[in-house]
Structure formats: structure tokens, C-alpha cells
Amino acid sequence: VGNSSVLICSPKPNTTMVTWKISPKVGGHCSLGYRADQNKTDRTNCSDSINWKFRPDRDPTLEIRQVGRAHEGSYTCEVVVADGNFHTSYYLTVLVPPRLTLSCDDQGNPVCEAVAGKPAAQISWVLENNSTPKEEEHDNGTVTVLSKFTGYSTNGTTCTVSHPTGKWSKSIAC
Fold first, then answer.
1. Boundaries of each Ig-like domain copy (predicted)?
2. Domain with 84 in it
């Protein structure tokens, strides 16, 4: 989320036409097209954040700026030349880093939360405990994971959250 994503569509000599067909997981389809005989580009239902990275007559690479969850889905590039049609397909998965919170509950137990990540984060504790993490799925596709430390520690406890976007740790003494 928030970064740019570049999808490469290999250029071919004597390209007649290039089309990017985009089918998001949620929302309507969009397409970008280029016709060499008219040196003309066309776009249908694509947001401004989706566009050619370079001039399509030289390089048909697609760029998605400020990637959001709405960009998740299938992206197919079709290059038409005299020898036939060539396809390159991608499935864009959008990762959302969770927010880490660590607090103490009413009984003085540390509670670690990885809030609204995609996919769900993994929570572990530096000291062993028998906590079973609980997951709460949100309508926007993100997941909050909550884990309560149930062991005993007088010096404080450290929670570690692991996610494809990174790894974070926080310590607390309750």
C-alpha cells in the first residue's frame, strides 16, 4: 500500500497493438490500449494512478502509482505482432502492514495486537506462553490479530509481530 508497482510487458519488434486488460478484485474493469498504425493511445475506466510508465510505442510497461487495496486483481498485457499475439499476466496482491499495539488488560496481562494487516500477522512472545491468537476479519480485507500473554514475568514482556511487510517488537511491564 502506498508504493508504486511496475508490471513489465516485453516489447516486440513491429508491434501493431498493445492492450492492458485490468480486472480488479473489487470494482469495474479498465483497459489501456495503443495502436501503432495511428500512434494513438486509449484508456477506458482507468483511474489516473494507472498509466503507461514510458511511451507505449517504445516500452509497454504499466505503472500503478500509490497502490491501494482497490488495485488488487488481474493484469494482462497483450502484444499484437505479425507473428501472433503474446500475453503476459500478473495477479497483483496488495500487502497492508499492521499497526502494532501493546497494552495491559485489567488483570495485568500484556495484550499484543497487530491491527488491520493484510494478510494476517503472526504474533509471538519472547517468553513462552499458552496464548491462542484471535483473528478478526474486517470488511476491507484486513485482519486484526490479538494475543494475550498468559505466562508470568516480573521484568516485562516482549511481543513480536511478523508480517510479509516487516517485523516489529514492543516490550511492556504490567
1. 60-173
2. 5-92
